[in-house]
Amino acid sequence: DADVTQTPRNRITKTGKRIMLECSQTKGHDRMYWYRQDPGLGLRLIYYSFDVKDINKGEISDGYSVSRQAQAKFSLSLESAIPNQTALYFCATSDLRQGVGDTQYFGPGTRLTVL
Amino acid sequence: DQQVKQNSPSLSVQEGRISILNCDYTNSMFDYFLWYKKYPAEGPTFLISISSIKDKNEDGRFTVFLNKSAKHLSLHIVPSQPGDSAVYFCAAGRLNTGNQFYFGTGTSLTVIP
Fold first, then answer.
1. Rounded to whole angstroms, how far apart are CA atoms A29 and A60?
2. What is the pLDDT of residue B100?
3. Cα(first)–Cα(last) distance of chain B, in Å?
């Protein structure tokens, strides 16, 4: 079984709709992240959470919100989706206690299309 | 502005030869650097890392070189194998400060059998 799972894997929605992307992990890591990948722009950080009570904005948080429901779950919401939020979204986890730096472990991605 | 840049979107190499992927960064405060590999329909996976106290780190066929004065790092793959064909992302940031890591745009490597 995958250590970091994302649901759904693919989603097509319409402008103005609310949508939630979910991420679960079985690695026992404290830190969780949401990124988006766009062609020619690499991965950009949306939000990150270092524990259940700690939420931080990343490079491109506008238009998004997150919820850390438990250590293992981190959800990303688009309150009112717009077409330029069409992208590939990745969840990731990390654990500094492993002593290997901030190595992040990524989920398989969610492809979101906003029409 | 991109703080981490990979100026070559793609690279093709013959099997058995060396692949060299390059990455430049702009922030002199970055002290930790990583390379990730991504296959289609999968998330990136960690490949190798280096901290700023070193200028070289080796793991099997993969070696990362860091030139702090030039703010440049490179990933060498020797010998290249067809299974190495993937997109490679470099990432840079500040370790242990809670700051985010910044990713480059990726280089698509094709190893030709």
1. 23
2. 78
3. 37
The angle at the Cα of B78, spanning B72 to B84, to the nearest 5 degrees, equals 90
Q: What is the pLDDT of residues A48-105, one digit of tens each?
A: 998 889 999 998 999 999 999 999 999 999 999 999 999 999 999 988 665 556 688 9
The total of other beta-carbon atoms located within 10 Å of residue B53's CB is 9
From the list A40, A42, A108, the residue facing B43 with the nearest CB is A108
Rounded Cα gap, residues B65 and B103, in angstroms = 17
Would you call B45 an interface residue with chain A, using a CB distance cutoff of 8 Å?
yes
**pLDDT tens-place string over residues A13-51:** 999 999 999 999 999 998 999 999 998 788 999 999 988
CA dihedral A75, A29, B38, B29 (to 10 degrees): 100
**Number of alpha helices (DSSP H) and beta strands (DSSP E) in chain A:** 0, 11
Best to test chain A binding among B3, B46, B53 (most A CBs inside 10 Å):
B46
